[in-house]
Amino acid sequence: xxxxxxxxxxxxxxxxxxxxxxxxxxxxxxxxxxxxxxxxxxxxxxxxxxxxxxxxxxxxxxxxxxxxxxxxxxxxxxxxxxxxxxxxxxxxxx
Length: 94
What we know:
mainly alpha
């Protein structure tokens, strides 16, 4: 996970606050409960991105051992593989 729990909590709280202020939606649950649910969704999404990252790294190590981690070629191939994995799993990367 690339974000701290505190950062995720802040983002979730900001989302709830903006929804409440905009009055574009009726929030029928407790705002704290809604923020907690949003935190869970964000954390789950970030964890899934981490899984994709690990899978892409492992794939590169197995199939392209000539690439050195940290190089431009590695980064480009890693991005491509992450995108391929995401597409195959029906996930949209940010």
